[in-house]
Amino acid sequence: MGRRLVPLSLDNLADLPSPCRSCVFWELDPVSGQEAERCGRSAQEKEAWISTVLREWGSCGRLVYVDRRPVGFVLYAPPAYVPRSQAFPTNPLSADAVHLVTGWIIPPFQHQGLGRMLMQGVAKDLLGRGFRAVEAFGDARWKEPACLLPADHLASVGFEVVRPHPSYPRLRLELRTAMSWRADVESALDRLLGGARPAAAM
Asked: With contact defined as beta carbons under 8 Å apart, do 36 and 24 qualify?
C-alpha cells in the first residue's frame, strides 16, 4: 500500500473529500459564509481562499494519498486568514501559533496511522518556517463529525487547554511534541481526524 503526503495546492484542491472541498465554515465569517452557500458560491470561495493563503503566506494544508487515492487532509493557517475564528469566545489565538483549522480521514482509512502522518507533516512544515505551535478551537460537546475538532480527541494527542470554555476551549500543541509522536498515539490521532468533517457546526 503506497502512501504519499503532499502539500495542498489549487491543482489538487479537487481531491479534498466532497463535503470539504466546498465548505467555507472557517474560510469566511458567518454572514459571508451563509451568503456564499445560499448563492452556490462556496466552491469558488474555497478556491479563492486557498489561492490567497498560498500566495501571501505559503502552504496551508496537506493531503494524504493511499495508492493514488486521496483519503485525508488537514488545513492550517495564521489566524488572520481564518475569519470564523473571530466568532469564538476563546479567541484570539496566541501570537506564536498557527491555527489548526480542520482535518479529516475518510472512514475506510482511519486507524491506519495516517493521522500521525498528516500531523507530523504539518509539524515539519511549520517548524521549518519558524513556528512553534498550533492551536485549535475544540468542540467540548462533540457528538458527530463536523467542522470543529473534538476537544477530547485534541487532548488525547497532547494538546493542552490554554483557554477553557464549556463549549469551545482553545487548545495548543507544541510542534516539537508532534515530531516525536510514536505509534502508541496513532489510534488517538485517527480518532481526532476521523471526528472532524465540514458539516454544520456552531
From this structure: yes
In single-letter form, the type of residue at position 153 comes to H
Specify the pTM.
Answer: 0.88
Q: What is the 3-state secondary structure (H, E, C) of the chain?
A: CCEEEEECCCCCHHHCCHHHHCCCCCCCCHHHHHHHHHCCCHHHHHHHHHHHHHHHCCCCEEEEEECCEEEEEEEEECHHHCHHHHHCCCCCCCCCEEEEEEEEECHHHCCCCHHHHHHHHHHHHHHHCCCCEEEEEEECCCCCCECCEEHHHHHHCCCEEEECCCCCCEEEEEHHHHHCCCHHHHHHHHHHHHCECCCCCC
Give tens-digit pLDDT for 25-65: 999 999 999 999 999 999 999 999 999 999 999 999 999 99
